[in-house]
Amino acid sequence: MDFLNIRWDMWEMIWNYRSMFIRGIGITLALTAIGYVLGLCLGLFVGMGKLSKRKWIFYPAKYYVDFFRGTPLLVQILLIHTAIIPGIFGHSLGYFVSGIIALTLNSAAYNAEIIRAGIQSIEKGQNEAARSLGMTSGTAMKLIVLPQAFRRMVPPLGNELIALMKDSSLLMVIAAPDLLYAGKIVAGASSRFWEPYITVAVLYLLLTFIFGKLIGYIENRFSNSYIPSPRRGIFKFGRESAGR
């Protein structure tokens, strides 16, 4: 059975390429982090645009989301890297710029829908109560609606972060030296495919596990049932006060 024919001496070769894998992890994390943060910021504006009653704001936001959610990320990457950026600047700006733009625009479309749904899940009475107290619509959204909606957005936003990290492997098609690209180089140099790609899969699994734990902590931290542990100083003060 060829799929079990794993040469254990290949792991020495993979170890010799460890610097390439480490660099690939760093580039993968950098592309994911920057693309996600920018996508979250842009997604907030697009999501708010989809809630607008003004057609000149609503329809551009709607068409933006429909386009980037309805077309493959791979097509978007190639379109941005080979057509849009060279068409504007006359030449390519490299894999990093193209990758950041593609991941940002794609992530923003999904984050916009998450934000829109999160805001709409808050009861209208919350906004009406804030307006009755004299708050403007913007102030009510900032101080009342968004903080409550964010608690409900954390799980889907976390899932989008993990999905974006895995989707960043598609940037290999524009020669981004990410984690998958490192596996491809080792596979080409050794003419072996099981060991390099198993290594890549395990590393992605490890990153996903770490991200999942971090997202789980944030989700628990912002949940309604979260009870912070008492600080030592406060607890000591409380005991002393009770004994007086």
Automatic annotation (TrEMBL):
Matches recorded under Pfam families: BPD_transp_1
Domain of life of the source: Bacteria
Topological type in the membrane: Multi-pass membrane protein
Transmembrane segments: 20-46, 67-89, 95-112, 170-190, 197-218
UniProt KW rRNA-binding keyword: no
Main location: membrane
Key words, A-Z: Amino-acid transport, Cell membrane, Membrane, Transmembrane, Transmembrane helix, Transport
ABC transmembrane type-1 domain ranges (all copies): 25-215
Alphabetized PROSITE patterns for the sequence: ABC_TM1 (PS50928)
NCBIfam families in alphabetical order: HEQRo_perm_3TM
UniProt family annotation: Belongs to the binding-protein-dependent transport system permease family. HisMQ subfamily.
Protein name: Amino acid ABC transporter permease
Native species: Sporosarcina siberiensis
